[in-house]
Amino acid sequence: xxxxxxxxxxxxxxxxxxxxxxxxxxxxxxxxxxxxxxxxxxxxxxxxxxxxxxxxxxxxxxxxxxxxxxxxxxxxxxxxxxxxxxxxxxxxxxxxxxxxxxxxxxxxxxxxxxxxxxxxxxxxxxxxxxxxxxxxxxxxxxxxxxxxxxxxxxxxxxxxxxxxxxxxxxxxxxxxxxxxxxxxxxxxxxxxxxxxxxxxxxxxxxxxxx
Length: 210
Prior knowledge:
This protein is mainly beta.
């Protein structure tokens, strides 16, 4: 499978792109970024330098992915998502005499999107956090802290309201505190996969083999 790059896309030096990946119109990928196999990068998306993207990742239109972001296999980043990497950004020095460098420094904090996770359209993702395996971030959410595996989160700031299956269908809704309530076992009505939920942690009853 060949790589497909639209003629209007700007791909800088030292970028690696896996076979079968499609880069659509007006995308800008900065230097030293790695994109895996069979990915889709939607129109007008900006991927900054040094970003790491796995295989089978779907990035919709007008997404901003900054330096220090890692996206694992099979994740989906929906349209209009914005990543950040600095909690206290400034354009200039404190005395306003010099521009502040855009190069990574001690203020540059990482974000990790684990395999299979989905980030809904128009979300804003903070830094120094992890979005767990197969987690589901609802559209328009503002993520300010790490999200556990399989959790469904919504809001500003985003909070856990339930559990999503690998297939994306909600399988459980939290009532009250996430860690409250007795342990429970749930089965997805759509695909039949089963999960155990205890103290807010979600584990697969029969994990899908890689």
